[in-house]
Design goal:
The protein is mainly α. The chain contains 26 helices and 2 strands. Strands 1-2 form a two-stranded antiparallel ribbon.
């Protein structure tokens, strides 16, 4: 106990020194900005300094010891494990996208806050303490022993459950890590000017230095440092905006005062004739696209002929080189055939219809007529359900239960994790309201000739796929709300400039977003490589492998998985929050029934676990493929109008019922399995 306290005091001293050094670094950059340092250099310094910091911690924490590599030696104090887990949990979706989602969707976006926070309560109550009592390395370890009977891994059931758990872990974690690496590329490219793909591999280098050299040991101490950066980066602009608009620097309290003012501003804009004029233009554009779709393929042929004639005309009249190039680009960008035209025009029609819709009141739950409100309510509840149960089954989060010295420390660690998560999660809704009020009151109504500088900067960041744009649709020279397009993934990154803060704070927020993405990516990559090296290679292929060989294989697998994930992220497969949501539905469907029933129902056996995992995962995956247009499905195939991101609402019950039914129809587990359940559920003396 004395050694544990001494270790805690030593860690506290180290991280206090780190915090002081970090604050000093921020002050130094602020002074350099005042002296005229270009903003691009500030971005480079933030990127370079944070990557060097994480790499240094990774090198200092390098290890080849199995216990240290897999579970950080089981000696991480509860508070520091809570900080590391919070950093592991606060992914790019939470840091970058969630406030933007709340800005765009209002009340509906609270499903993420409720689902993810409530899910961690399930982790604390149903899973984490029992995994720590089990004292192994991975989630497949627990499931294989629980359902393997007296022979454990040597039994057919234990091996089957382990293999299925490994497959689920890899698919869930890979989907999740692609979203994190995508966010790394987004941040790096926005703040250093490098190409998106180059940004991905820059971030990947820092991920690999941490997880490759030291495994869970290096990741843990790096994630504690990353959490400090995350919390400072997220709270600073929120506190500034809160003080600016309400004279109260506590955003979690102040934004309640702003909600009525925001609602009043929404009502004014809703009744503005100029806003109605812009929305009518978008509705007319949607109708024009529909007319083109209805008259295919002749409309496609006529459009292509018109583009060709325009190019010929500018060439004949000796137009400027710029005009000729623009005409050539327009012809090249035109759909190659009628099928492509149908897809692109359908997407354009849908986008224009969305922009033609009236303003959605931020604080109104489930707006619309009765049928629309019911659909929105059902999707809200389904998403909360999927996020909660998915959280309670995420392998990279549950792995952290193994790193504390005891079950008691695990319970205390979960308390600290919730505390550190709530510091961010209670600020996210406040930040969305504060930024929305600022844009609605300061930007809307501004002359296009007097737009703030940040508008020009963010509009030109990515011209091919603009994340922010303002276009004078009705040509009146004044900004209307309907003329503004803002992507959910850019709102938090742009918040410091929207608030009028120095650019150094923008660099800080980018560093915070990078820390959130890297910390989660580290944990996910380690979960995948450990599942392959420990659960497949060591437990199934070669039980005589030395500890050095096991760690080496884990490192090599981690390297391979990281590059595959980076390649997948470079293809820009979708927005961050959709990828993350899919991972939660898959995790809940495949793993939650086996984990929860494995702890609380002795009658559950390996036949039930195998059937439940396959059934739940298959239903969830089928629904996603069948209803998600990006994956080749159609929204027309939805059941009860449930969005594909909430596919777990069908997968989890199917998995649970299948597991219960098959377990009751097959022989009960042996006495050793029942004794194992009794053991992991028995309280330790330190808990009493």
């Amino acid at each position: 106990m004395k050694e544990h306290r001494s270790f805690f005091r030593r860690l506290s001293r180290y991280y206090l020194l780190f915090t002081g050094g970090f604050v000093g670094f921020l002050i130094s950059l602020a002074v350099l900005e005042q002296e005229g340092m270009p903003r691009v250099w500030i971005g480079y310094l933030f990127m370079f300094a944070t990557i060097v910091l994480y790499a240094t911690l990774g090198v200092l924490s390098r290890t080849s010891n199995v216990l240290e590599y897999y579970v950080a030696g089981r000696r991480v104090p509860a508070m520091f494990n809570g900080m590391a887990t919070a950093a592991d949990w606060i992914s790019a979706a939470s840091f970058i996208s969630l406030a933007g989602g709340l800005y765009l969707h209002g009340f509906d976006g609270l499903a993420y806050i409720m689902g993810w926070t409530g899910g961690y309560c399930l982790v604390a109550l149903l899973i984490a303490p029992y995994l720590r009592k089990f004292s192994q390395y991975t989630i497949p370890d627990f499931l294989a022993m629980r359902y393997g009977g007296a022979d454990g891994d040597l039994s057919r059931g234990g091996r089957a459950v382990r293999i299925l758990a490994v497959i689920a872990t890899i698919i869930v974690s890979f989907t999740y890590v692609v979203a994190q690496i995508y966010a790394v590329g987004l941040i790096a490219s926005r703040f250093t000017g490098v190409d998106f793909s180059v940004g991905i591999f820059l971030g990947l280098a820092s991920i690999l230095v941490c997880s490759f050299l030291g495994g869970m040991r290096a990741i843990t101490w790096t994630q504690v440092a990353q959490y400090i950066i995350i919390v400072v980066a997220f709270l600073m602009p929120a506190v500034w905006l809160s003080a600016k608009h309400s004279d109260n620097p506590i955003p979690q309290v102040a934004y309640g005062k702003l909600l009525p003012q925001l609602s009043a501003r929404e009502a004014v804009l809703q009744n503005d004739p100029k806003e109605a004029e812009v929305r009518a233009i978008f509705r007319q554009r949607a109708d024009d696209y529909q007319l083109r779709i209805n008259t295919l393929p002749s409309s496609w042929e006529a459009g292509r002929l018109q583009m060709q004639r325009k190019l010929d005309d500018v060439k004949l009249r000796n137009a400027s080189l710029l005009e000729i190039r623009n005409a050539e680009r327009a012809l090249i960008a035109y759909p190659k055939d009628a099928d492509e035209a149908a897809r692109r025009w359908s997407d354009a029609r849908a986008q224009n219809l969305v922009r033609a819709e009236p303003i959605t009141p931020h604080a109104t739950p489930y707006p619309g007529d009765a049928a629309t409100a019911n659909i929105k309510r059902n999707n809200f509840l389904a998403l909360v359900f999927c996020l909660m149960l998915g959280t309670a089954a995420l392998p990279h989060i549950l792995m952290r239960s193994y790193t504390t010295p005891s079950v008691h420390e695990t319970r205390v660690s979960v308390f600290w994790t919730l505390f550190f998560i709530l510091l961010i999660y209670l600020t996210i809704p406040a930040l969305a309201v504060l930024v929305k009020y600022d844009i609605y009151s300061a930007l809307v109504g501004t002359d296009f000739a007097h737009l703030p500088n940040w508008v020009s900067y963010w509009s030109n960041v990515d011209k091919l796929n603009p994340l922010f744009s303002i276009n004078d649709i009705n040509h009146d020279g004044v900004v209307q709300l309907a003329e503004i397009t803002i992507d959910a993934d850019v709102l938090v990154l742009a918040t410091p400039e929207i608030a009028g803060l120095p650019y150094v704070v923008s660099g800080l927020v980018a560093a915070g977003g990078l820390a959130a993405a890297l910390s989660t990516a580290d944990g996910l990559l380690l979960a995948i490589s450990n599942a392959l090296s420990h659960d497949i290679y060591y437990k199934i292929v070669d039980r005589t492998a030395s500890t050095q060989k096991r760690v080496t294989i884990s490192k090599l697998l981690l390297l391979g998985v990281a590059f595959i994930a980076a390649y997948a992220a470079s293809t820009k497969p979708g927005d961050i929050i959709s990828l993350v949501g899919a991972a939660f539905s898959l995790a809940g469907s495949a793993l939650f029934p086996a984990l929860a029933l494995g702890v609380f129902w002795k009658r559950a056996n390996y036949q039930g676990a195998v059937a439940g995992m396959i059934a739940g995962f298959s239903v969830c995956l089928y629904y996603m493929l069948h209803t998600n247009p990006i994956l080749g499905g159609s929204a027309a195939g939805q059941w009860f109008h449930i969005a594909p991101i909430s596919a777990g609402i069908f997968g989890v019950p199917v998995g649970l019922l299948t597991m219960v039914g098959v377990s009751l129809m097959t022989p009960a587990p042996d006495r050793e399995t029942a004794a194992l359940v009794d053991y992991i559920r028995a309280a330790e003396r330190t808990d009493l």
